Amino acid sequence: MSKSRFIGAVEIGTSKVAVLVGEVVNGRSLNLIGFGECQSRGVIKGAVADFKAASDAAHSALMSAEQSAGVRIEEVYLAQTGAHLEGFYSEASVSVSAADNMVSQVDIDTVCRLAKSKALPEGRMVVHNIRRPFYLDGRMVGSNPEHLVGQRLDVGYWTVHGQENRIADNIHVIRGFNVRVGDLILSSLAAGAVLTSPQDRQNGALVIDVGAGTTDFVLYRDGGAFLTGVVPVGGGHLTNDLALGLRVTEGQAEKLKLRFGRGTVLSKDKTEKVWLNGDFAIGDRQFPKHTIETITSARTWELLEVVRKKLGAAFVPERCGAGVILTGGTSRLPGLTEAAAKVFGVAVHIGELPGAVDEKLREPAFATVTGLLNYGAQSRAESAPAKRAGTGGFIKKLFAVGN
Amino acid sequence: MSKFDSVSPVARSWRDIPQSVAPRVMSAEGRRRLVFSTGKLAATCFLAAVTLWGGIEIWRTWETAPQTLAAASDREPVKTIELRTDGVLDLDWVKGVVALPRNAALMELDLSALQARLVSSGQVRTAVLVRKFPSTLVVTLQERTPVVRIRAALGGAEPSDLVIARDGTVYAGSGYNAELIDSLPWLAGVRLARAGDGLAPLVGVETLAELLAVTQANAPGLYRSWKVVDLSRLSTDGEILVQSDAVPEVVFGTRDDFFTQVALLDSTIEQISLNPALGRPSRINLAVGGRQVPVAFGGPALRAPAPAPASYFRPLPRISL
Asked: How many whole angstroms separate alpha carbon A34 and alpha carbon B299?
C-alpha cells in the first residue's frame, strides 16, 4: 500500500509569498499537486519586519495552496534569505587512526566534527553546513573516503549562519499556521538544486537568484556547493532608483522598469522618449528612454559587481564551465544576461526548470520554491535509510498528531 | 571517551529554535488547525485508552471466569422477537411459524432454516432474520398481496378458500380483513398442481392482476360486480372471461390494452341500460379489437342507470378557446 506525505515549500519573499504543495509517495516520488501565491507584506529585503502582515500574507498563500491541492500540509520546507546570512570556510585534518592506514568511519566522523566545531558569535545560528570534498594526503577523494588508504584526511565545510532572531521570525510565521518547519533551506541552494544538473555542478556553475529585495547566489564546484552568499539588493532597488531619478511614484517606476528597463544601455538616441502610461490621459508624461536604461543598467552592473566581489578569488572563470545561470523575478530584465556575461566573463543564460514542471511554474520567479520542494524531498529521501525501522515509526506518528 | 570530544562545542543550529508558539500568535486558521489537531490527539488517546481498558477487562474476565464470556456470546437465549413487515402478518403468526424451542440460544439459531419456514407459507415473499445482541431476533418480512381467491379441496380434505398473489403464488391468506377477501373475485379455469409441500404458482395471474388493477382503479363499480374470472382460454386464445352481476360473460383480449377495453365495457353497459328494449346482454366480447363490441342478448332488460355518475368514464368537458 502506498504511503503519501504532503509537504509544502514556502518562500516568503520581498514581493511575493509562494507556496507549493508536493505529495511524496513512499518517500521516493514527488508530485506537485498544489500552488498558492500571495503578494508579500511586512517583509523588507527578505527579513520579516511586520510579523502580523507577513503572517497574514504567508497564511493566505498557504491556505490557497491547500485549497488548490485539496489536502492539509503536514510539514513545510522554508526558504531562507536575507542580508543577515553569512558564510565562512573552515577545515580540519586528522591522521588516519588504523595501523594499516585504512580510513574508517570513525576517522570520517572525527574530521567532520572537527571541521564543524568552530564557534559562532553570540546570537548566530547555523543554517547549513555544506561539506566540500574529502582530501586524502592532498588527493581529492570525493564524498566517501571510507576504506581508502592514506595517512592524512582533510575536509572543509562552508558554514552558512544567520541572525537567530531573524530565522526565528521566519519560523514563527509558519508556526502561526500550526504547521511544522521540517527544514530550512537557503534560497540560492534551492534554486540551484533545480536549475543545475550534476554535470553542471561538477563542471562549475554560478547560480544567481535576483529577487525583489535580495540577490542570492551559489557557486558550484567539484559536484557540490562551494560558496553561497546574499546581497541585499534586488529588483526593488531598480524600481526605487527609477522613482528617485525620474520623480515618479513606486508604482509608476515599477511599470517603467518592466516596460523599458534594461541591464545594458541599448538606446543610442538620447532624445527618444517613452510615455509613462501611453493612454494620453491626464498625468501621462514622457521620459527619455536612454535615462531609464542608464538608471537600471547602472544598478544592475553595480549589483553584479558586488556579487563578483563577494565571490572573490573563489570565482575562476576557467573553473565555471557551466557558466552563470540567472533566475528570480528580476532575471527577466532584458540585457541582464549581457551585463552578467561582461562582468563574469563566462557564458550566461536564464535558468530553465525541468519540463515536468507545470507551465505556470516555469517562470524564473518560481525557481526557488520549486527547487525548495525538490531539495527538501531529496535530502529527506537521502537521510531516510539511516533511520531505524521498527515500532518507533508508529509511536512517533502517534505523538506527531498534535503537531 | 574520544580524545576529540573536548573540542569546542558544535555551533547552535536553527533546529535549536523552539517551534512552539502561543495560540495568540497564530492566525485564525492556525488556531483552527490547532484545535483540530488537539481534538484528533485527544480522540486518539481516548480510543487507545478505551481499547486498552477493554482489553484489560476481557483479559481479567478470561482469567477469573472464562465461562461468563462464553455465555455472553453463545448461550444468551432469545428473549424478544421483533417483527417489521409491510403487510398484515403479526408477531403471533411469526412465532407460530418459526416455533422456537424454549430457551433457544440466539447464536444457535439456524437462520436459513427459519427463513425457509417463513417463506414456505406463501404469504411471505422475502424474510430477513438478523440477530440483535444480546437477545433479540429481528424478523423483517415483505408480504404478497392477494388479487383473486379460489376454493379447492386439497388431498381429499374439506374444500377451503385460498388466495392467489400477483405472481401466481397460491396460499392460505392469514390476517387479511374479511371485507378485502370478500371483494376478491373467484378464479376459475385453472388447475392446481402440487409442488413440494405447497402448490405450484399459477401461470397467467400476472396478466389477470393487471386487468383487475385497471378495473379497480378506473371503474370500481364494475370491479365490485365481477364475481368470477376465468383463465381457461388465456393460454389458447389469449382471452380472459369475466362473469359479473350484469353480464354472464365478458370476454377480454390480452392483445389490446385493458384500459380501453374496460372503458368500452362501461360505455356498452351504459348504452344497453339506456335502451331497455334490447333486453339483458348475455355476452359482451371486447377481444375483437377496435371500437366494435359484439353483444349477445338473451335475458331481462338491465335497469336504467342512476342519473348521477352513470359512467365511470365520463367525457372530458369541452373547453372553448
From this structure: 90
